[in-house]
Design a protein that fits this description.
Length: 363
């Protein structure tokens, strides 16, 4: 079994705390994405696992083995980077074969294994070319093939798709996901792209400023973000966050944002009351805000259209409230004029309530 376990991993560069006590349990055969903004410590974490950085403290286990003192080459991992680092003077075949030849694999076996991964990645017809004769996407597939051919216990991938153009990135993302199902090798994939993480991961580890802030299945990260940081990092457009005050009266529990006030009930009201917090942040995903050009019985507030962005499949509607601009996602056919009055509703149970001072989720 080759899961990967990090226990209280710490890595400092001088006074920069790149990784602050990260503990993470990655199951054998799973695909885990380290997600977070630039500089949050993703690459450093990956490089510690690879053995390219020496942690200040903490344990790294691959399978049942503590690998802290093991050379990178003995850890049985393969790494794929953002820049593919292919050998320019070698053919694609020799690039892919290189790690096998280094390990003195007999040449007949090298041939079969290279052929097999080349078929898997759809690059058979490129085997005789040199990297300079390939497109970026083809080069990236060769780099993946070179990592896969060794059949390592663990793959480490650091933003491997970010040098590709948007269209190719979407295509390669799906290919990688297929490949993951075929290979079932434990993979740690680093990205700052939330859509990439959502679409590929078995589990997402969200990092912020050197810390692991949430580790869960993509759907949980989306539907139950642990903090305002996670909430605003996942989803496109990101979640709307509005400051609100809690008031508990004999009529029930109310949230007042200054622009509108509404009643919360059931488990939401219970959780808010139990927390004892009165300054909260209300989070509503754009896809949960319902815009209507007419007032209805469930309308929660009235506001003005700031701008309408038709995107084909759907329309992003920017609305203007007293304290700022918020986004809603409406159907592809929704149209309204700038400055027009609209009514907005949402299901109170589709919202997220956070403690404003800590940023942590209450509900
Ligand atoms: N070799 C290094 N020397 C000094 N600081 C570094 C070095 N590598 C990374 N850092 C710093 O450590 C922090 C985490 O960096 P990194 O792990 O590369 O983040 P990410 O991959 O999430 O963008 C950043 O503040 C970065 O500037
Ligand atoms: Mg990085």
């Amino acid at each position: 079994m080759t899961g990967v376990t990090l226990a209280n991993l710490v890595k400092n560069y001088g006074s920069v705390q790149a990784v602050k006590s990260v503990s993470l349990d990655i199951e054998d055969g799973s695909f885990v994405v380290l997600l977070g903004p630039s500089g949050c410590g993703k690459t450093t974490t990956l490089r510690c696992i690879a053995g390219l950085e020496v942690p200040d403290s903490g344990d790294i286990n691959i399978g049942q083995v503590r690998v802290n003192d093991m050379q990178p080459k003995d850890r049985d991992i393969a790494m794929v980077f953002q820049n593919y680092a292919l050998y320019p003077h070698m053919t694609v075949f020799n690039n892919i074969a290189f790690p096998l030849k280094m390990r003195k694999v007999p040449s007949a076996e090298v041939k079969t294994r290279v052929q097999k991964v080349a078929e898997m990645l759809n690059i058979v017809e490129l085997l005789a070319r040199k990297p300079g004769q390939l497109s970026g996407g083809q080069q990236q597939r060769v780099a993946l093939a070179r990592a896969i051919v060794r059949q390592p216990k663990v793959f480490l991938m650091d933003e491997p798709l970010s040098n590709l153009d948007a269209r190719l990135r979407l295509y390669t993302r799906a290919e990688l996901k297929r490949l993951k199902q075929e290979l079932k090798v434990t993979t740690i994939f680093v990205t700052h792209d939330q859509a990439e993480a959502m679409s590929m991961a078995d589990k997402i580890a969200v990092m912020n400023a050197g810390e692991l802030v949430q580790y869960a299945e993509p759907y949980i990260i989306y539907s139950k973000p642990a903090s305002t940081f996670v909430a605003s990092f996942i989803g496109s457009p990101p979640m709307n966050l509005m400051k609100a005050t809690v008031s508990v009266t004999s009529d029930g529990t109310f949230l007042d944002t200054g622009s509108f006030k509404y009643k919360v009930s059931g488990t939401f009201a219970d959780a808010i009351k139990k927390s004892g917090v009165s300054d909260v942040t209300l989070g509503v995903r754009p896809e949960d805000l319902i815009i209507s050009t007419k007032q209805a019985s469930d309308s929660i507030f009235e506001c003005e259209i700031y701008v309408v962005e038709p995107l084909g499949a759907n329309t992003v509607v920017d609305i203007k409230l007293k304290d700022g601009l918020y986004k809603a996602v409406a159907s592809g056919t929704f149209r309204a004029d700038v400055g027009q009055k609209v009514w907005v509703s949402f299901l109170p149970e589709s919202t997220h309530i956070f403690n404003t001072s800590t940023g942590q989720a209450i509900t």
